[in-house]
Specification:
29% strand; alpha+beta; 27% helix; two-stranded antiparallel ribbon; four-stranded mixed β-sheet
């Protein structure tokens, strides 16, 4: 299925759908609103943004873990000059561009793997989105 890179499965068989984006710069091209313009359509539960950058003698790796809703809110603010806008408005405005976020935009989400673990260990719920 488009946009699914990883299935994380918990003890109770609850499955998290994860989309991964990698970058060797300070920006991640998400294409979020271009791929998921309607908030009710099937979309990943989580996004893992993987940064790998070469330093003088080694590679520096960082992982940022966000729910789809968290990344959508950050992407919407980035696309709209810091203003809070609805998902639908953000998607409509993003049609003629390619969504991207900076490491600075997602820095607070570094190594938040526990989100996916907690999601997979919680009782199954029907997916409304």
């Amino acid at each position: 299925m488009k946009g699914i890179d990883i299935f994380a499965i918990g003890d109770r068989r609850r499955t998290a759908v994860v989309e991964v984006k990698a970058s060797n710069s300070n920006r991640f091209v998400t294409g979020l609103f271009q791929k998921y313009p309607d908030p009710t359509m099937t979309r990943p539960d989580f996004w893992v943004l993987y940064s790998i950058r070469e330093t003088s003698e080694r590679f520096d790796e960082q992982f940022f873990i966000l729910s789809h809703d968290e990344l959508a809110a950050i992407q919407a603010r980035r696309n709209n000059g810091g203003r809070e806008v609805s998902y639908g408005e953000a998607a409509a405005r993003a049609k003629k561009r390619v969504d991207n976020v900076l490491i600075a935009d997602v820095a607070d989400y570094k190594d938040q793997w526990q989100k996916i673990i907690d999601f997979c260990q919680s009782p199954k719920r029907s997916r409304s989105t």
